[in-house]
Amino acid sequence: MNHEEVGRYWNENAEAWTQLARAGYDLYRDQLNTPGFLAMLPDIQGLSGIDIGCGEGHNTRLIAGLGARIVGIDIAEVFIGHASEMEERKPLGIEYRVASAVELPFPDSHFDFATATMSLMDIPETDLAVAEAFRVVKPGGFLQFSILHPCLDTPHRLNLRNEQGVTYAYEVGGYFQDRNGEIAEWIFTSTPEETRSRFPKFQIPVFTRTLSQWFNLLIDTGFVIERVEEPRPSDETVRACPHVQDAQVMPFCLHIRVRKPDRNLRVITH
Fold first, then answer.
1. Does residue 166 sit in helix, strand or coil?
2. Half-sphere exposure (CA, 13 Å, Cβ side) for 82?
3. Which helix (H) or strand (E) holds 136?
4. What contacts 24+ positions apart, CB below 8 Å, involve 196-205?
5. In angstroms, rounded to a whole number, what is the distance separating the alpha carbons of residues 175 and 184?
6. Dist CA 232 CA 250 (whole Å)
7. Hey, CA dihedral for 215, 228, 232, 26, is it positive or negative?
8. 3-class SS at 89?
9. What's the 3-state SS for 185-229?
């Protein structure tokens, strides 16, 4: 399976995904992943950036709201259609394009930074996508991305709950198993039953890498690892949204920021 085949799956998912996410059912995005991702971003005021795998543009809009000039790309035309429609209604100066992460239509060293929220993990040619991000970012610029945490995104995963329904542990297995294009079917778990009946389940090709594979890929591409976070919901967040309590027990997301070295900078030692 290649990125074009995967893109067809995501184009089929895009209509239901957009409607359900905009209705507020993507709780792990809204309560966990996105707040942690934005908190980890360095100052991007006045910088130019590319959001790789932007989907319907939710996080792209939030990043633009921090003062950056953003281009959002996604391989799924339906997603880009929804993102562009929102930009027309509430302009933030975002440019959206249909494009693949493994063939970015931009020259070398074009952007100050790149972001990718929960998208790089869905690309079979992950090495090409990371190499393209490295290519289009200026020396000294950064790539910040989020993925499902490899330690929890495993073929076998069982949520262990006590009598009160509170998660106290996860049982996981198959960490080293290569899930190269296996199709997972699911829908946002907070979606009400009456709403679920109106939408098909998402069909998502799954590709997994271990932690060491991710870090070695970044290092081999030429990036320097700058910061790593595993966002965890606060007690206040869990009180307001009990659905995400299990993310206090095991990390659901992994956030990584890497930087492209600037070979022209002089290093002064004392």
1. coil
2. 21
3. helix 126-136
4. 199/16, 199/19, 199/20, 200/16, 202/13, 202/16, 202/17, 203/9, 203/12, 203/13, 204/9, 204/10, 204/13, 204/122, 205/1, 205/5, 205/6, 205/9, 205/122, 205/124, 205/181
5. 16
6. 8
7. negative
8. helix
9. EECCCCCCHHHHCCCCCEEEEECCCCHHHHHHHHHHHCCEEEEEE
Q: Which uninterrupted H or E stretch holds 182?
A: strand 182-186
Give the 3-state secondary structure of residue 155: coil
Domain boundaries, the chain: 3-259
String of DSSP letters for 235-270: HHHHHH-GGGGGGGTS--EEEEEEE---TTSPPP--
The residue length of the chain stands at: 270
Residue 49 CA to residue 68 CA, distance in Å, equals 7
CA-based nearest residue to 74, from 91, 94, 92, 88: 94
* Helix-then-strand count for the chain, H and E: 9, 11
Q: Is 123 helix (H, G, I), strand (E, B) or coil?
A: coil
Q: Compute the distance between CA of residue 61 and CA of residue 52 in angstroms, rounded to an integer.
A: 13
Architecture of domain 3-259: 3-Layer(aba) Sandwich (3.40)
DSSP label of 120: G
pLDDT in tens, 127-152: 999 999 999 999 999 999 999 999 99
Task: Compute CA 265 distance to the chain's CA centroid, rounded to the nearest angstrom.
Answer: 31
Candidates 31, 95, 15, 101; CA nearest to 61 is 95
pLDDT digits (tens, 9 = 90+) for 159-189: 999 999 999 999 999 999 989 899 999 999 9
Indicate whether 199 pLDDT > 80: yes
61 contact partners, CB below 8 Å, separation of at least 6: 86, 90, 92, 94
